[in-house]
Specification:
heterodimer, A: 2 domains, 0% strand, B: 92 residues, disordered N terminus
Chain lengths: 208, 92
């Protein structure tokens, strides 16, 4: 019982810290960039810093918005599918599908296992029990194999081996939040490396 | 590769002028034929490796502080484009 409450306290503290930092980051807007530009000595450096930061910010935002919209679509579609299957709490299952979709390969695998177990616990016969997992897999395949690759194109493709290594590593470092943030962080690293000439070879190495 | 060779040969020439050593006498290049760095450069690689290890240890030890900050930065990048148009309209 004490462990549960200590975890709740840690989660609440982390959540509050995130909201606080996010609020001030959104409030400050370009202040940090302005200060950096003021510090840089030459006009050429100032211009380059602004250009690089704008490109990086644009690319990262485009990537994050695209995957978040796609994951939200998967979440809504899964919630509807679970509602049609008669599974309890379809909003919960939708939220689970939304979060799991941030974790490539392993996320959908965990999702299939979870939906299979939920189906087996809910339905009395075998085929209706497997229906939720089948529908979730179908939604994931439609999104992961066709729509998202089409939207993100080859520009944001990452090396699958490095994705798995990053997932394992960040899960070990930070647990479940680390696994959710692993791929966005890897993609952000690649985008930053692509725009900074000195780091471009590393960005190329991360490419799929 | 040529840039690496050049950048590693230059310091070797300057040190040989001040205090000659076996390398300057034998006229051996600092970079091997395969382009692998030697001497001070290997030390730099190891220093970089140690820095990375220290950084990862700090990330691991300070995850309760670092994780919300990283999450906030990512959420900021996600939400900033959505907030920009209303702000611009307000100030225009």
């Amino acid at each position: 019982m004490l462990t549960v409450f200590s975890n709740t306290r840690a989660f609440a503290a982390g959540f509050l810290e995130t909201i606080l930092v996010l609020f001030f980051l959104l409030l400050s807007d370009d202040t940090l960039l302005r200060r950096l530009v003021e510090v840089l000595p030459r006009f050429g450096d100032k211009r380059q810093a602004i250009e690089i930061s704008q490109h990086i910010e644009h690319d990262i935002s485009a990537y994050l918005i695209t995957i978040t919209i796609m994951n939200a679509a998967v979440g809504i579609a899964t919630a509807l599918a679970m509602w049609l299957c008669g599974l309890g709490d379809p909003v919960l299952w939708g939220a689970v599908a939304f979060l799991l979709n941030y974790i490539p390969i392993l996320g959908p695998m965990i999702g299939v296992v979870m939906f299979t177990l939920a189906g087996l616990l809910t339905a009395k016969t075998l085929w209706p029990a497997l229906l939720p997992a089948g529908l979730y897999l179908l939604i994931h395949l439609a999104e992961g194999e066709t729509i998202t690759p089409m939207l993100l194109a080859r520009r944001f493709t990452l090396n699958p081996l490095l994705v798995i290594v990053a997932l394992i590593f960040w899960y070990w470092m930070w647990g479940v939040p680390g696994a959710i943030l692993a791929v966005p962080m890897l993609a952000i690293t690649k985008i930053i490396c692509d725009w900074i000439r000195m780091l471009a070879p590393f960005g190329h190495f991360l490419e799929g | 590769m040529a840039r690496i060779v050049q950048s590693h040969v230059e310091p070797a020439e300057s040190t040989s002028a001040e205090e000659p050593d076996a390398r300057s006498i034998s006229n051996e290049p600092v970079v091997s034929e395969q382009g692998m760095p030697r001497g001070a450069d290997i030390r730099g690689v190891f220093q970089g490796g140690l820095f990375m290890l220290a950084l990862l240890a700090a990330l691991y030890a300070g995850r309760e502080i670092v994780l919300p900050i990283v999450l906030a930065i990512i959420l900021n990048l996600l939400l900033q484009p959505a907030l920009r148009p209303p702000l611009e309209l307000t100030f225009c």
